UniProtKB/TrEMBL annotation, chains A, B:
InterPro entries: Ald_DH/histidinol_DH (IPR016161), Histidinol_DH_CS (IPR001692), Histidinol_DH_monofunct (IPR022695), Hstdl_DH (IPR012131). GO terms for molecular function: histidinol dehydrogenase activity. It holds the Pfam family Histidinol_dh. Its cofactor is Zn(2+). The gene is hisD. The active site is at 322 (proton acceptor), 323 (proton acceptor). Binds 1 zinc ion per subunit. It is an enzyme of class 1 (oxidoreductase). This is Histidinol dehydrogenase. Belongs to the histidinol dehydrogenase family.
Length: 429, 429
């Protein structure tokens, strides 16, 4: 970790820079796969599965038998752990339900809003060595609470044509309605366009590599909603001398192991902490299996020493981290200063891993500075909030003249007339 | 209005089709203007104002004197009307504030979320003959309630180099912090990139023509958030024989006058209502100044007669209208059937104009079928919701083993270690 002592505000932009992953050159590939799947449906999907995943899949839909087999395979202690995490995630997301409140804005004029589930949502879960069943929990649980009718999950098959059993277990536990063995651009295209086998969805969720990201961007251009713009994962820790350097080191390493493009930032008011954390990193790193990934991520990572924690928080707001750990004195009373962050972890015992898996908060969060203008995934991500209004005749009589005046001033006479014709009727009737 | 009697489900897709406005061919224009403004800042902005608006603007920022002049020009009755509308909009959007609730998901594990304002928002208000000051209210009022620090407004200058006084009045009333005489692609580019005169914003709001729409799409690709994907305005009215055909006609016409690309749909269970509404349209149309616009919009418009209102509601959910009027018996008890709509108007006295101007609901709504996967603008649009979590040492002891198991199963050892190292400390300490 390169260390910067009292960086000036002019340096902040450079210090807040993320590694950017170029995706523009994938656009042509994405478009051609979408066009092929638009034209040739599941035949094209299977062709790309064969090409990219190196396996020929006859039945893309996961069968009940396959799910039962997976459920049987998962060790009981892991099942229990997944169930505990699921309960916490459920509890927290259920608390995000909005109770409609009718507001009488003018006497006789009632306004309120009600949530309705997005009918069909698509969840993408990457394949690879580490089965991200935790992302299944984070996306399917709020979808279920929202009341989404169809919860579609796509994940690439491995070399034996299967999806990791932990993913299947999490999917059946949380109420995913259909699971397909399809990955990459072809999965996103199938869920965007619909095929004879895979339904068209209204909104797409879930992590993915740069191909999946580029495909999701293209889906958005075609009219689908997506969860969040994507970027590599990141963590910023603000630490003062009340922190435990070993804990801080372990958190920075946990972020670093996500990928070589991950970024970890240590912000502190003490050079001594930087050196303590650095030496703890060296010690702990030696025992980690993903050492080369961790080392690559640490190359993009920084330790920033400011004169005060206050300035450190200002930098953090400027950086807008996906994850923010506050390992500082009286941390809970500092949170009103936090303006931009995806999820915040307060105090020495709130490690990022807790939120990644089991505390109950969602781990699908804005990266790459998007915490300035986007929220992480929540129950809100799976509903639309529809506004309703009811004007009693008295309400229109009270508010009608206001509407008539404004419509006339905007030169929208038919808008005015819709009011006038009603007021006239009320006057005569 | 072309009438369809009992259209079969196979016909629904065609009947729900909107006029699509092609924007792809604007992409090159948009990109070149963005690049020029990126390189040449306000000089380029002024060049495009000169080119597109036919006026040379020295000071793009509106001065206090210009605002004072505008305030003095607005008639008192219009001022009063705008203030009444503003109060209602304020009341309804204030009711959307979320009160943070701490949830103890596991003993010693506390999760909650808090809203933070998006720091800098940009509001675009089109120019032209009709000054859309109502859109200023709909966007600046929730921005102010959210606590956005910088509320930037751009609107094109007219031929005399001014912005309509009603827009300026609404802007100063609602607390817009800076107003600039810039329109079109150059306004969106300036707010996206920032110039020496116009600040870079975090999120863009507001209506616009196809140039503005294409520019906002490009801004989104560059990392800005935008309010909603755009499309022409639309209204669907569901009416049974408790409706007032004259009222329904006036509502359809009020939507039709928005633009030739507007769409209005009448859904009913009675052919008699179609003919009554049609003849009321003919009568009322004769008195409207925007007759040619109205007639163009009516060409894309449809009357659909279903065997039951129930089926009509199903069609409406399929169509997902921006505005939905329920002019049916016992309308309020039918709203649980409404799945997809931007804003719903209940009963004979709830005309769309009320929501367009003054009832309190927002008029920035999803068009073009986006009501299936997007909500209209609300207080939520101006904030991020940050999740917070605090694990007491007891909380981590309770939940730690769960996290360790899950992290190990995802092969993320550093994630596991962040927990283990803390549990060890607690055990020893």
């Amino acid at each position: 970790m390169k260390t910067y002592i009292n960086p000036t505000p002019e340096q902040w932009s450079a210090l807040a820079k993320r590694q950017t992953v170029p995706t523009a050159d994938l656009n042509e590939t994405v478009k051609s796969i979408f066009n092929d799947i638009q034209k040739n449906g599941s035949t094209a999907v299977k062709k790309y599965t064969n090409y990219f995943d190196g396996i020929s899949i006859e039945n893309v839909a996961i069968s009940t038998a396959e799910i039962e087999k997976a459920v049987a395979e998962i060790p009981t202690d892991l099942k229990n752990a997944i169930q505990i995490a699921a309960e916490n995630i459920k509890r927290f997301h259920q608390s995000q339900k909005e109770i409609p409140t009718k507001i009488e804005t003018t006497s006789g004029v009632f306004c309120w809003r009600e949530s309705r589930a997005i009918e069909t949502v698509g969840i993408y879960i990457p394949g690879g060595t580490a089965p991200l069943f935790s992302s299944v929990l984070m996306l399917a649980i709020p979808a279920k609470i929202a009341g989404c009718k169809n919860i579609i999950l796509c994940s690439p098959p491995d070399k034996t044509g299967n999806i990791n059993p932990a993913i299947l277990y999490a999917a059946q536990l949380t109420g995913v309605t259909q699971i397909y063995k399809v990955g990459g651009i072809q999965a996103i295209a199938a869920m965007t366009l619909g095929t004879d086998e895979i339904p068209k969805v209204d909104k797409l969720f879930g992590p993915g590599n740069q191909y999946v990201t580029a495909a999701k961007q293209y889906s958005q251009q075609l009219g689908l909603a997506i969860d969040l713009p994507a970027g590599p994962s990141e963590l910023l820790v603000i630490a003062d001398d009340t922190c435990e350097p070993e804990f801080v080191a372990s958190d920075l390493l946990s972020q670093a192991e996500h990928g070589g493009d991950s970024q970890v930032i240590l912000v502190t008011n003490s050079e001594a902490i930087v050196s303590k954390v650095s030496s703890a990193i060296e010690k702990q790193k030696a025992f980690l299996p993903r050492q080369s990934v961790v080392e690559k991520a640490l190359e993009n990572s920084r330790a920033l020493v400011f004169q005060s924690i206050q300035t450190g928080i200002e930098f953090s707001n400027f950086y807008a981290p996906e994850h923010l750990i506050l390992a500082i004195e009286d941390a809970e009373n500092k949170i009103s200063l936090i303006e931009n962050a995806g999820s915040v972890f307060i105090g020495n015992y709130s490690c990022e891993s807790a939120g990644d898996y089991a505390s109950g908060t969602n781990h699908t969060l804005p990266t790459n500075g998007y915490a300035k203008n986007y929220s992480g995934v929540s129950l809100d991500s799976f509903v639309k909030k529809i506004t309703f209004q009811k004007l009693a005749s008295k309400g229109l009589q009270n508010l009608g003249p206001t509407i008539e005046l404004m419509a006339a001033a905007e030169q929208l006479d038919a808008h005015k007339n819709a009011v006038s014709i009603r007021l006239k009727k009320l006057q005569n009737g």
